Amino acid sequence: MLKLENVTRRFGGYAAVNNVTITVPKGQMVGVIGRSGAGKSTLLRMLNRLIDPSSGSVRFDQTEITELRGAALRNWQRDCAMIFQQFNLVPRLNVLTNVLLGRLNYRSTLLNLTGSFSKEERAMAISALERLGIAQTALQSAGTLSGGQQQRVAIARALMQQPKMILADEPIASLDPLNAKVVMDSLHNINQEEGITVITNLHTLDTARHYCERVIGMAAGEVVFDGPAENLTSEAVRMIYGAAAEELSEDITSTSIKDKASTPSVGSLQHAV
Ligand SMILES: Nc1ncnc2c1ncn2[C@@H]1O[C@H](COP(=O)(O)OP(=O)(O)O)[C@@H](O)[C@H]1O
Ligand SMILES: [Mg+2]
User: Which CATH class is domain 2-231?
Assistant: First the structure.
């Protein structure tokens, strides 16, 4: 169970995340939506301590995450694997090696320096790649893969960390609709089959609605909606995306997993809710 209480992060005088209190039970799939600048990335980054909160508490089970230092902090960062919009692979290294890099936090510095991975680790990496349907790319340089394949490599690398949570920051924002669907399906399967909590920032409402049992809407650093997608009223959508939501339809649907032609406009989304 992850518990945030009154979490705030300021940059200068501006509260990028403002007094957020939420509880995420183990195994939930949560979509965080909101306009660019709403504070989604800052919130996610505070969970694994890429950024420290200015104030507030982040607790996971009995552990106060904001106080972790040294090895305990590294263990926590291993427990919550991050997926980024830009994949963050090492393009010149082959896919298998990129996936094995997910094991680094499990190993001693000395073992890491020798650069050798065990047979078991290699088998684990291959099975992660098989699970994501890209085992045939194992020996290719990661940089030669399509965006959708690269994001699946990043998910395989995350699985190698044997995480308790997967934090994904707009994982499909750089992908075409077909690849976006494959990547979201993969995250959803992992959530369902392994019971790993997934918290993912998403630009688009319809993706969150389709995959996430719980949607958190942010605006100007605050949580303005929290609940199942079916509770999103047109008023809630306006709170999240602003009064001019109608004019933002391209923004909201641009990374839709659906075919462009069949993507409903914000207007019809609002009528559908
Ligand atoms: N390192 C930083 N320094 C200063 N301001 C930042 C920094 N990171 C984010 N911000 C500001 O915090 C706000 C929220 O940003 P962010 O969390 O990236 O939003 P989102 O991911 O929803 O687009 C924005 O106004 C952004 O400019
Ligand atoms: Mg962001």
Answer: alpha beta
Mutate which of 42, 86, 201, 204 to test ligand 1's pocket (most atoms within 8 Å of Cβ)?
A: 42
Global pTM value: 0.89
- Distance (Å, rounded) from C-alpha 9 to C-alpha 228? 26
| Ligand lying closest to the C-alpha of residue 170 | 2
Between the CA of residue 126 and those of 78, 99, 146, 150, what are the distances in Å?
A: 20, 9, 19, 15
Instruction: Give the Å distance between the CA of 39 and the centre of ligand 2.
Output: 7
Ligand 1 atom nearest the C-alpha of 42 is: 17
Q: Smallest Cα–Cα separation from 132: which of 104, 98, 106, 165?
A: 98
Which ligand minimizes its atom distance to the CA of 33? 1
Residues with CB under 6 A from ligand 1: 11, 16, 34, 36-42
Ligand whose nearest atom lies closest to the CA of 17: 1
Cα distances (Å, whole numbers) of residue 263 to 172, 204, 207, 243, 250: 16, 11, 11, 21, 10
On whether the CB atoms of residues 3 and 56 are closer than 8 A, the answer is: no
pLDDT in tens, the chain (273 residues): 999 999 999 999 999 999 999 999 999 999 999 999 999 999 999 999 999 999 999 999 999 999 999 999 999 999 999 999 999 999 999 999 999 999 887 766 656 656 678 899 999 999 999 999 999 999 999 999 999 999 999 999 999 999 999 999 999 999 999 999 999 999 999 999 999 999 999 988 999 999 999 999 999 999 999 999 989 888 899 999 987 665 555 445 444 443 333 334 343 333 333
